[in-house]
Design goal:
The chain is α/β, with parallel strands linked by helices. The chain is built from 8 helices and 4 strands. Strand 3 and strand 4 form a beta hairpin. The radius of gyration is 16 Å and the shape is globular.
Length: 214
Amino acid sequence: MKSPIVSRPTSLALALALLVPACGAGPTDSVDDSAAVGESQQAYESIPEQQPGGDPNTPGGSTAGAPDLDVTFETCFNATRRNEMQDALEDILENWSAFERNLDDRGITGDHDCMHDRLTRNGNVKCDACDVPGHSVFLGQTANVCRNWAISVEDDHPSSSGSRKVCWASVIMHEFGHTCVRPEGGAELVDDAARETLNDIYNTSIDESECNQD
């Protein structure tokens, strides 16, 4: 697996932050534009030829030429759950311009390329034995989704695959947000944008509490 390429040295603050797993008791950033975040966003090497396209005026934000999803799923043995996760991420990718608008509306303007690369180039989803919804590390490439949390979502939404898909994408995109150097406050805005995007697609109204993320 390729490691992210950093074009210039990171700050001491970022170096210390990398030692702390995301989704822990780390700092929040309600505005989400701290100097360390800005510096590390610039350090991330995006791939210009993989920039998503599409007409922002297209209803739902769908793009006819959307790239294929390329996310590796590790130890996700429940086939139904894994397929729903994959479907949810594909729907985010196919409606990328809508997702970007929802990010922009929340002030998240600097990490679209990084998260796009997680879906099309270098992202991993690992189903893990843990009790929180998920976890990840800054500048990693893996969104760890906890099996016990996933079971709780399935128990709460046994007959609505759309509701479950909203929750899968909410946690996975939250953790991908962390890998793109968004502290907890910023990652929460990312999962808000993911839920809004898929709620519009699936005609659902699932919020954070209904995904057992609060």
